[in-house]
Amino acid sequence: MILDLGTGIFEGQPPQSARRLGELASIFRNPEAAKGMDPRTPVYETYGCPGEVEGPARLLYATTVLHPGQVGGEFFMTRGHFHTDPARGELMLTLRGHGALILMDRDRNTWTEPMEPGSVHDIDGRYAHRVANTGDELLVFYVAWMSDCGHDYESIREQGFGKILVEGPAGPVLTS
Ligand code: NI
């Protein structure tokens, strides 16, 4: 199997998922700001394994291709989730572009790690995680996780993260 490091595509494989702005507008602090934008605007695609699979626990992997863009000054980002098993972490490797890994603990403390080509991120299974594209090109990253980690997207969908990442005068800024 060959992974194209520039596009994040595993040779010959269609996307596992393709998320567009129309279905993601509600994850942004100001979804109204998306109303003037084309709802078909691509935000991110994933390639590789589905999030969960049946059977004995095993390692899964995927790439995400996150497009550049903003909604009301907030950078395009993934939905984000907690792992239901806090003992199951996740490994991330940035292949292309620039962004931020946004992390949050159960007390809603929120912080970021900068992402750039070659940056490696050892995500503790206790922390919610999502990724924002802070650059003006595609952000491509590879992740690996255990199939039995469990995904809780619901908590994030309802409450978001403790802070949002917006464009500031001197670069990305986390703000309440
Ligand atoms: Ni995860």
Structural notes for this entry:
- It is a single chain.
- By secondary structure, the protein is mainly beta.
- The chain has a six-stranded antiparallel β-sheet with strand order 1-2-3-12-7-10. The chain has a three-stranded antiparallel β-sheet with strand order 9-8-11, with no helix packed on it.
- It is built from two helices and 15 strands.
- The structure holds nickel (II) ion (NI).
- The site of nickel (II) ion (NI) has 5 residues, from loops.
- The site of nickel (II) ion has 5 residues, from loops.
Topology (SSEs and partners):
Layout: E1 17-20, H1 21-24, E2 42-48, E3 59-66, E4 70-71, E5 74-75, E6 82-83, E7 90-96, E8 99-104, E9 110-115, E10 120-123, E11 128-133, E12 139-146, E13 151-152, H2 154-159, E14 164-168, E15 171-175
Antiparallel strand pairs: 1-2, 2-3, 3-12, 4-5, 6-13, 7-10, 7-12, 8-9, 8-11, 14-15
Nickel (II) ion binds at residues 81, 83, 90, 129, 145.
Keywords for this structure?
single chain, 176 residues, mainly beta, 2 helices, 15 strands, 6% helix, binds nickel (II) ion
Mean pLDDT over the full residue set = 96
User: What's the shape?
Assistant: globular
Count the E strands: 15
- Count of runs of 4 or more consecutive helical residues: 2
* Residues in helices, as a percent range: under 10%
Most strands sheet: 6 strands, antiparallel
Catalogue the ligands. nickel (II) ion
The chain-level structural class is mainly beta
Précis, in short:
By secondary structure, the protein is mostly beta strands.
